[in-house]
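Late entry, evening session. Most of the bench is empty. Finally got around to the prediction I had been postponing all week. Sequence below, unchanged from the version circulated by S.P.
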Amino acid sequence: MKEDETCPSDLRGKLSNNHQLLAYVSLLETNKPYLINTMRVPALQTVTMFSNSIDTDAACMRLVCDGWLEIRFVDEETASNTLSSLIQLRATWQNLLKLRLKDTLKSLDEDKRVNPRARQLEKILAKKLSEYLSCEVCYAIRRVMAAEQNRLYRGPDREAGGKNKILNDVLKSGSEGKVHSVKGGIQINHYLTYNCLLDESEASIWGEYTSSMQKHWVCPRCEANLIVSIQERLEHESECQSKNFEPTQQEEAQEMEEVKQAQMNPLRKHYFCDKCDQGFRFTTTEILKHKKSHVT
């Protein structure tokens, strides 16, 4: 890829939007281990979606996934948007699984119809997953060496007025986040820990400034206009997205409109046209006519 002058010198030649990892279905162990059903997968999307732990620095431009894979972004905006999409996607996926389990555990006497909210979450998940997999974000990825493990994390704040004053101020201000007992930093949710990575000496001052800097941001779910820091934004998104069992007013209106249209003509079904980049409710004949209109 073409790199500009703002690209850090240690990332030049390493940035790409097409990094890949090798995934496999099963492991066959004979005299030698063999990987069965291997395939290439996009590195950023796969690692962040399935990691048990994701640790960030103050600007979220550096991620360490499961303690051994490091991902670095060029700018703060790209990093924040990537984490924002990830939080929304994983929260939607988790809530959909919970709703499906509730439907499965219903007694035999109860109605077995699928929860309408589960159907809505399926559509949201499919859309967000498609967007996340198709995003073209430039980043660098590498394996964290064993010698770096001892200096990877800040560690918990040992003194009440210790060196990490920003975290103390955040906690005193009423934030619900708590300091990770081993890594340090703020634990946003069960997999994401913010500002626990030990910054390089030349970047520590900038990291503290960035973590406390506030910007205007609109929540994509509740549409609240907020002035927040990076850590406050991550906390709000994690909390807001985890509560999306109940639909918003906009989602309720959209769902009622779809039900109304389906009742008017039960043969109509949802159809998304890639060329129009728009969703429709068409019958099978209308779908064929619409496809033909793009060919001619």
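Two things to note before I forget:
Helices lie at 43-50, 76-104, 116-134, 165-172, 204-212, 230-242, 249-264, 284-295.
Residues 158-175, 201-209 have pLDDT under 50 and may be disordered.
Will write this up properly tomorrow.
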